Structures are given as C-alpha cells and as structure tokens.
Amino acid sequence: MRETVLLAWRNLWRNSRRSALTIGSVSCGLAAVMLGQSLMKTIQKQMVEKSTGIMLGHLQAQAKGVRDHRVPERVYPRPAAFEKSLREHPFVQAVSARIKFTGLVYSPQGSRGVLVVGVEPETEAKISIIPGYLKEGHYFGGGERDLVLGDRLAGELDVRIGEKLVVMAQAMGTEMSSELFRVAGIYHSGSESYDGQVVYVQLPAAQRVRGVPGKISYLVAKLPDPELVPSVIADLGSKAAAEGADLLSFRKIGLEVEAIIRFEDAILIVVLFIIFSIVGLGILNTVAMSMFERVREFGTLRALGARPVVVVRMIAVEALFLGSLGALAGLCLGGAIIFWWGTTGLHLPIGKALSYWLPFDAVVYLRPVWRMHVASAAGLVVVSLVSAAGPAFRAARLVIAEALRSL
Amino acid sequence: MSGETLIELKQVSKVYRPKVKAAFSDAAPGVIAIEKLDLAFSKGEFSAIAGPSGSGKSTLLNLIGTIDAPTDGTIAFRGKTVTNLDENALADFRLHQLGFVFQAYNLIPVLTAAENVEYPLALQGVSRAERRARAIEALSWVGLDGLADRRPDLLSGGQQQRVAVARAIVHRPAVVLADEPTANLDSKTAASLLDMMLDLNKKHGITFIFSSHDPTVLSRARRVIHLQDGRLQ
Ligand SMILES: Nc1ncnc2c1ncn2[C@@H]1O[C@H](COP(=O)(O)OP(=O)(O)OP(=O)(O)O)[C@@H](O)[C@H]1O
Ligand SMILES: [Mg+2]
User: Fold this and answer.
1) How much distance in Å is there from the Cα of B13 to the middle of ligand 1?
2) Model's pTM, two decimal places?
3) What CATH number did the domain enclosing B90 receive?
4) Tens of pLDDT along A128-139?
5) Which domain does A188 fall in, by range?
6) Which residues of A293-322 are buried (b: 16+ CB within 10 A; e: fewer)?
7) Atom 17 of ligand 1 has which residue's CA nearest to it?
C-alpha cells in the first residue's frame, strides 16, 4: 500500500500542470458551493431573526382551534399557569402577551386599514426589534393611549409625534368601537408592510377597542436560539394544551419564511449537484487521460505480477489525492472568501426584494457553516473516487500483452 | 542444475482475431501467430527464439509469460497447468516465478533505479530494509553500483536495460523472459548486456529465454528455437 501511495503521488506530479488545474477546478467548485451555502444560510438566518424579531417570536401560544395563525381569529384568557412555566423555562428569555386584529386608523387627513397589535411594552421590548427601529419619539411610556406606528403610515395620515389618531375596529360582539390615541413613537423598519400597515398600542387599550377585556390572541416567547424551539415545545406543549392553548413554533406561523428557506435549500441542492457533476467530469477527464498515457506502464506492472486490484488502487489513490487536495484547497479558498465577505459585508439587493413583508439589512455579513462545508468537501472526495472508478476498472482489465504494445 | 522441465507447451495456438466486430468479421479468420506448438524448456537454459519479423516470437514469449492467453492448447509450469488460472493467480504466478525484460526497458519513470528493482519485492510484501539490500545487490550484479537513486530518464539505454534485468532477477524467478532485449541497443552495448545475462545464468543459475533476430545475439544462446509462421522450423 505504501508503494501504491508513493507511486500515485509521484504520478500525480508528472503532469503537474494538469493536476494543478484539476485541483484548482475542484477547489473552485467547492468554494462556490461553500459560498452558496454560506450566503443562503446567512440570508435564512437573518430572515428568521427578522421575522421572529419583528412579529413572530420563536414560540406562540394561541387558542386551540385557531385557523389563521398569523392573525388569530380567536382570543382566549391568559393561560396563567402555563405562562408561569414558560417564563421559568431555562431556554426562555422573555414572554409577552399580544392581541391582534384588523382595524382602521383615522387622522384629520385620512384613514387607513391596519393591523392593530396590542402589546405589553416592557416585555415586548425584550422580544420585538421594532423599538430598535424607532426614529422619533418613544416606544410607549407616555400614557395608556400611546400609539406607535411606522413612518410610511404616519406620512400617509400626515401625523407627527404628539398628534391624535382614532383607532376603530369591530368589537367581538357586533358594533364598531373606537378610541382616541396619541402618536408616541414613529419607526422605520424598511419593510413596507410594517412601516405602512401596522400600529402598536398597549394591550388593555387594544382589548377595550376589541371588546374583549382580559383576553389575548397569544403569548409570545423569545429564545436565545431558534434551534431550541422543538425542545421547549416538547417540554411545555402539554401544559399549554391543559389551558386550551396550542404552543406553536414560528415555523408553523411564518409559513412564507419556511417556504423560502425550503426553496433556497432546494436550489442549493441543485447547485451542489451541478457543481459536483462538473467537478466529477473534470476528474474523470484527468484520470482517464493520465490512464491512457500510461497504458504501457500498467501493462508492465501487471506483467511484473501486480494483481488487477493494485492498478485499481493506484488510480483510486491518485483520484483521492486530486479530490482531497482540491477539497482542502477549496475549504481554504471558500473559507477565505466567506471570511472576507463576513468582515467587509456583502451588498445584496435581496433586502429590497424582501422588504415588502420583512425588514432586511442591505449589507449581509457572511458566516461559514462548517458542518455543511466539510460535508460538501467530503462529498467531493467521494465524487472524485466515483469518477475514477471507470478508468480504474478499465485499466485493471487490460490485456497485458496488448497494453505493453501501446506507446 | 539443468534437466528439470520448467515449462511445457502442448498444442499451443494463438489466433489474433480482428478487433472490429463488424458483420463481416466471420469472413476474416484472423492471424494465426502460433500454430499447434509443442515445446519444452528446462531449468538453467539460456535459449533464444529466432525467426523473421512476424514469425511469432513475441507472441510465443507472451504466451509463456502468461500475459496473453493461448487460443488453444495448454501451458504447464513444473507440471502444473497455468492456462486455466484466473487473473489473480496468474499475477501471483508471474510475481514469484517469472521475470520480464522488455525491448523498450519499460522502467517506471517516477521510480528510481533501486525503486524499480524493488517493485516486485514490494508486491511480494518483502520488508523495506531487505528489499533495499536485495535491490542494491541485484544492481551490483548487473554492474550498476552507485546508480541506485537515479531516475530512468537520467540513465542511458544500456543502463536502463540493466536496471530492467536487475528488476527481472531480484526476486529469484525460475525464468527470465526477454523479448528482443537488445533491439534498442547499439551492438557494443548489446554484447555487454548479453555477456552480463550469460554471466547471471552461469553464476546464479537463472534461466533465460529471449528472442532476437540478430545473428550475433543468437550466436550466444546455447539453444536456438527457430520459428517460421508460428511453427518450429
Ligand atoms: N495484437 C495483435 N493483433 C493482431 N495481430 C497480431 C497482434 N500481435 C501480433 N500479431 C500478428 O501475429 C503475427 C506474429 O506476430 P509477433 O509480434 O509475435 O511476431 P514477431 O516474431 O515478434 O515479430 P517482430 O520480429 O517484428 O517483433 C504477425 O503476423 C503479427 O502481425
Ligand atoms: Mg516481436
């Protein structure tokens, strides 16, 4: 085996330009795959961060039987015992209650249909990223009738900090009800729908407008890491059920985010497949060429008493060298590019594309996803081995006397 | 020393069929390179196969060397038939019983002279230290002391062929088969290579079977087998 490795290694550098080119193409392929993985995962991570931060939270406890999880059509009394357990769960950073319904806002200059969100400012501020987008005024704190809205909506209604607005909605009974609010804060998130279609008021006021005092649409919780969601659901799901609530992951509520993530993952797999095929063909070409150039040598080795498997092994080891050197170089190259764009940031127009429904940073900072990168590198090594199988078995089956006649 | 029958060919034929498997290939019968040959070689021989170009010398050596299969007939080595062995068994047979010297030397270009000579021993699983010692010894037998670490491309044709001979004898095979070993060498170098082979035969009892169509080379052989159109003359 030592001789096989030695021979393979030296043979690799006989045509050093060709081998270097192949290794280069493997490494570029891997770097491209890594870049794609890092980009997609960085974008996905931000989408999850933004969507959970702006509205979804990581977990929601909604009334059982709710059909529209985004704007639950049912309200229910706070599940007190469950809420206590949720707050005390080691993975849970913050818990808050919300009521959510559609309504109208009026100013002297006009009216708009909006989503009204009743929040508990103190705990809400630990969950929501809206306070961070505030550009004028305060995130509540003035009084019971404070209202926070986006700059786009404020512009359309032509209201400024301190000015009054009427929020009107259908109370849970039948009749319309309305209440006067004062603009306490104006934010700019960059998302058209949040900046133009959502108003935040305090929970008791919202409950009054909706005519359901003491009731909420859901409890929302924030965890340090979205990956922890399933374990919290496993721990507390039955407790929530005992109080008529359904404990839901953000993935179940933000179906668009989930769909986009799935779509991106699918694209990634297609790209992976294409790049692996190209790299595989490149290695096949290199191995086949070097095999055809050395037919007489294989004949010689076989004549001297090498079993067919020795020849197969030699070619396999050569391909393994090509693949693993390429994978190693690719990990370095891809890592360097990701590190570079992780430090300087990458300007992406994707923020604009998503901005209708989600705020998104204009510059993304790429992060490596080593688990995926290393798996791809290992995949490439396997691909190189598979590509070499054809030429290797052909070389092993040569008729020795004929191989020796070849030039 | 001599006397024991090493190799025995019985009714051996080799027909080369055309490679192109066209519809009319039935019509083309193929070339009969060796026809119903009966032949035996004994231990300690220093024998030459002679004959004009195309008479079947290479084919015969290939068949004896089990690097090509006869179309018909059997070849036995020390009484055991080898023509029915599988690829692995044949490889092992060659590895332990045969040595090869080729017209074009066929050294592995990425290996040094010593590494080339060591190769059959490596295949046999001989330890590195012993391998190296035996390779150096074989190189000195062929008069190449001091060139152990040279790559083939830095050796002359004569030197390369000596390395090839060292590689063919290093594992003490029963027979060394050499197809036109001197054809690529000038007459002086050819003569000294032949001297060396004869020396190895005498001193170490190595059996040689080689082919040539050069009368001066053939004159050194103790036995000459004349081939004509694939038959003994
Ligand atoms: N691989 C092959 N395919 C078809 N025909 C072949 C093949 N090898 C040899 N022959 C034919 O078989 C016959 C014997 O060839 P062989 O090479 O054994 O002769 P040779 O005596 O070694 O000739 P030379 O002195 O030119 O080397 C020739 O007619 C040759 O054309
Ligand atoms: Mg010939």
Assistant:
1) 13
2) 0.83
3) 3.40.50.300
4) 999 999 999 999
5) 57-253
6) ebbbbbbbbbbbbbbbebbbbbbbbbbbbb
7) B58
